[in-house]
Design goal:
Elements lengths: L1 H5 L28 H11 L5 H6 L2 H18 L20
Helix pairs in contact: 2-4
């Protein structure tokens, strides 16, 4: 089973692993930029940025989008204690 899963690359960190006390989402020191993961997280929120656009973002912009998307997704899933920061200006709403 491990060999079969290995072909898909490393496991994606579960969003709950980013939650700190008080419901604040923080990106840890192990964060690695992954434009595909950022794209998918944004899709889960109905926000929009296409893959080519995400590729032009700085690492800081990707982290901001990740934090916002994780928080918005968790908060929408009956986790009212999750603090959702303002949507970053470089993320568009709603998706087109």
């Amino acid at each position: 089973m491990q060999d079969a899963l290995a072909e898909y690359g490393p496991a994606v960190t579960e969003p709950e692993e980013f939650v700190e006390d008080g419901g604040v989402i923080r990106i840890g020191p192990d964060w690695k930029r992954d434009n595909d993961v950022t794209f998918m997280r944004l899709l889960m929120t109905a926000a929009h940025a296409d893959e080519a656009e995400i590729a032009t973002w700085s690492d800081e912009q990707c982290q901001q989008a990740d934090v916002w998307a994780i928080a918005a997704s968790l908060n929408a899933s009956d986790n009212d204690d999750i603090v959702v920061p303002p949507m970053p200006a470089h993320v568009r709403w709603p998706a087109h």
